[in-house]
Design brief:
The protein has about 500 residues and is an alpha/beta fold. The chain contains 16 helices and twelve strands. A hairpin with an 8-residue loop joins strand 11 and strand 12. It is globular and about 80 Å long. The structure holds pyridoxal-5'-phosphate. Pyridoxal-5'-phosphate (PLP) binds next to helix 6.
Length: about 500
């Protein structure tokens, strides 16, 4: 492997490639009377590169190849479920009848799309064990906000003025406390016990008459299924609180356990993680919420419904309605419809058995990696994991090497790094989620890379501090890269 640092200077900008007089196409001589362009339309000070068509195509193709993506390789970014998404989902979401419609069209002209939404709501209810669903929230965090607001609205309707506290386990994703606080609730943390569960002893005194609810991610961000989940939910219910489920980790539970059966009252799905559509990457997401029947009137809308039942002559008429006590819309129009189409196609293609297999393989792959890597990397919570697990990036014989160094060195081995420094309760966290779409050869190659890096860490720690050495850009100043982003050069 080359150890030469590539600084990025080799990649010329389109202006550096420009050469005066070079052009992509030549127009025939003008054979109509010339007219002046409207004043102000031409900007003399606007520099334009001068290139041939081939220069432009090669420039952008080369740039695109600098990207690392799911279509290039393994992407074990914990908590993000970066699975390979079948191309057919993309293709069908671009069908004319789905793509070129407008939410203000008369409903009679978009019956197919409304039927899809209605059926997708039903599928999500069935998968989650819930009774109602709205597809409108735009992402996971937005679903959390909508769900917590639903809980707050229900308490308000019951006259529970004192119930303002939302409990959040200390392993939670940062969006959990953020969305609860944005909903006007008071956030109180609940510690994790030695096995990675919610600490029941610490939870007990928090279950009092100020409790609005608890927000639980199960499996949690350690990749562990809470061994007392039913008991926790019963304790909260007994104290008069409701249970919110952060369903971002549903890739571990499909067809195996339903949050509704475990005592959750309302939850969100990340359609863009669990059911096709990659997480991140700049595209839209979708965070539908599902709720138990007693909350159905309070969820945001609109909700797809049957406006007129089927008759002998006519098919049913699908439409949209706002639940009776709803807080209203949290997103314009219907939500992110394209993501819904991809989820619908994915669920139909997998079917019940396929969905269960997704979660079984996601869990099997994670346990395979965990068992192979824990021999070298410390594993703080050592019990079978679900779809992901968290190692410590702190090796006993290389104390000065950090999780960040290991993650950066993985890029030299052509792997996307795992999530770093989250969850916060694990020191130097390396959170690894292989997903179900990787085969044994890929997993073995990743294990080999991780073990080779551990060896390098002991022999030549500086190599890891300098990594990555083979990528277009070397080690970034992480803060400057985020706070002083220059995207125009
Ligand atoms: C556990 C958990 N909760 C919530 C979210 C928020 O989801 P989103 O990024 O769609 O807002 C994520 C995102 O990955 C997550 O992992």
């Amino acid at each position: 492997m080359s150890t030469k640092a590539i600084t990025g200077n080799e990649q010329k900008t389109i202006f550096e490639l420009s050469s005066a007089g070079r052009r992509g196409m030549r127009y025939p001589k003008c054979d109509v009377p010339e007219t002046e362009l409207l004043e102000g339309l031409l900007r003399d000070e606007l520099p334009m590169p001068e290139l041939s068509e081939a220069d432009v195509v090669r420039h952008f193709t080369n740039l695109s190849e600098l990207n690392y993506s799911l279509d290039n390789g393994f992407y074990p970014l914990g908590s993000c479920t970066m699975k390979y998404n079948p191309k057919i989902d993309e293709k069908l979401s671009r069908l004319d009848g789905f793509m070129n419609i407008h939410p203000l069209q008369p409903i009679e002209t978009v019956q197919g799309s409304l039927l899809l939404m209605y059926e997708l709501q039903g599928m999500l209810q069935r998968i989650s064990g819930m009774d109602a669903c709205t597809l409108t929230p735009a992402a996971g965090a937005h679903g959390e906000f909508s769900g917590v607001k639903t809980i707050a609205a229900w308490h308000e309707a019951q006259g529970h003025d004192k119930r303002k506290v939302m409990l959040i386990p200390d392993s939670a994703h940062g969006t959990n406390p953020a969305t609860s606080a944005m909903s006007g609730l008071i956030v109180k943390p609940v510690p994790t016990d030695g096995r990675g569960n919610i600490d029941l002893e610490k939870l007990a005194p928090l279950c009092n008459d100020e409790l609005a609810g608890i927000m639980i991610t199960n499996p949690n961000t350690l990749g562990l299924f809470d061994e007392h989940i039913v008991e926790v939910n019963e304790m909260v219910h007994k104290a008069g609180g409701l249970v919110y489920g952060d369903g971002a980790n549903m890739n571990a539970l499909l067809g195996i356990a339903r949050p509704g059966d475990l005592g959750f009252d309302v939850m969100h799905f990340n359609l863009h993680k669990t059911f096709a559509t990659p997480h991140g990457g700049g595209g839209p997401g979708s965070g539908p919420i599902c709720a138990k029947a007693f909350l159905a009137d309070y969820i945001p809308g609109p909700v797809a419904c049957v406006l007129e039942e089927e008759t002998d002559e006519l098919p049913p008429l699908y439409g949209l309605k706002m639940p009776e006590e709803s807080m209203g819309q949290v997103r314009s129009f219907w939500g992110h419809f394209g993501v819904m189409v991809k989820a619908y196609v994915y669920i139909l293609m997998e079917g019940e058995e396929g969905l269960r297999r997704v979660s079984e393989y996601a869990t099997l792959n994670a346990n395979y990696l965990m068992a192979s890597l824990k021999k070298v990397y410390p594993l703080p919570f050592d019990r079978p994991c679900m779809h992901e697990f968290v190692l410590e990036g702190k090796l006993p014989d290389a104390p000065e090497v950090r999780a960040l160094d290991i993650a950066k060195r993985l890029m030299d081995y052509k792997f996307h790094p795992p999530t770093n420094y989250f969850p916060l309760i694990v020191h130097e966290a390396l959170m690894i989620e292989p997903t179900e779409t990787e085969n044994k050869q890929v997993l073995d190659a990743f294990i080999d890379a991780m073990l080779a890096i551990a060896k390098e860490a002991g022999e030549d720690p500086q190599l890891l501090h300098d990594a990555p050495l083979t990528t277009p850009f070397g080690r970034m100043d992480e803060v400057k890269a985020a706070k002083d982003l220059i995207i125009t050069e």
